[in-house]
Amino acid sequence: MQRPLLAVSRAMTELLEATARLAPLETTILVTGETGVGKERIAKLLHQGSRRREGAFVAVNCGAIAESLLESDLFGHVRGAFTGAATERIGLFEAARGGTLFLDEVGDVSPSMQLKLLRVLQERTVRRVGETRERAIDVRILAATHRDLAVCVANGSFRRDLFYRLQVIELRVPPLRDRPDDILPLARALVLDAALRFDRAISDLSKEAGERLLSHPWPGNVRELENAIERAVALARGGRIEVGDLPLDSTSALSIPPEAPETLAAVERAHILAVLARNEGHRERTATQLGIGSATLYRKLKAYGAA
Fold this sequence. Notes:
Blueprint: H1 10-22, E1 29-32, H2 39-48, E2 57-61, H3 67-75, E3 76-77, E4 89-90, H4 92-95, E5 100-104, H5 111-123, E6 125-126, E7 135-136, E8 140-145, H6 149-154, H7 160-166, E9 169-172, H8 183-198, E10 204-205, H9 207-215, H10 221-235, E11 240-241, H11 264-278, H12 283-290, H13 294-304
Parallel strand pairs: 1-8, 1-9, 2-5, 5-8, 10-11
Antiparallel strand pairs: 3-4, 6-7
């Protein structure tokens, strides 16, 4: 699901203006900010405003993939390069040709992968795993991280040369707690969106619910707000969201009044999304806590429009 991207606060208005100015430039941009603030949305806006808008926007979460698999995903491999490589496969750098490759959570990659990424950025070529041929790439590279890469450089966990390659320009997405003017407009837009998808006649928030949203610190940022609203819409018994519908005291406990008429599927969906939010989008950890396989979780998220 593509959540609404609203800008009421000065901080977000200035960010979106900067994004629009920078989008046409063929430069590498590093998008920073806490988990859940919407860094990928900013990256998509950069792509949509660029001359590469007709090309693919390919995103990869570097922190969620094992290093051996990440290398194959990014660079591709030839048949027989490793056990299980039964066919040749192109990597994401090549798949995004003419478009944009978004390296999300780039601050989580290993030192050896950092070196390989640096070579690609410098040479603008990739070498598939298991072959010696260099292949030219035609792709704009955007990156994002929730980490302070300057601190990582200082403590030796991130390469200084790669940092400078990625941070040609930096766009910082402010946390939700620093832009309270955005909370209620965003929440109302999310209510309408979720009500439409769930086919529920819910159109607004009560005054008390709005006050509760404004007082919450939102450690999970927009992603936490989105999941809280989805769950509230799924479980609400009236025509608007009341303060008791908001799962802000405990994102892991699912309390359902015995008279609630919601289907089991709606309850399951709300619970899965709440656990995913608590784990900051980490799917493997979420699947483990739910007691289901990663493939099962992916199928459910895809069905929910949240994959």
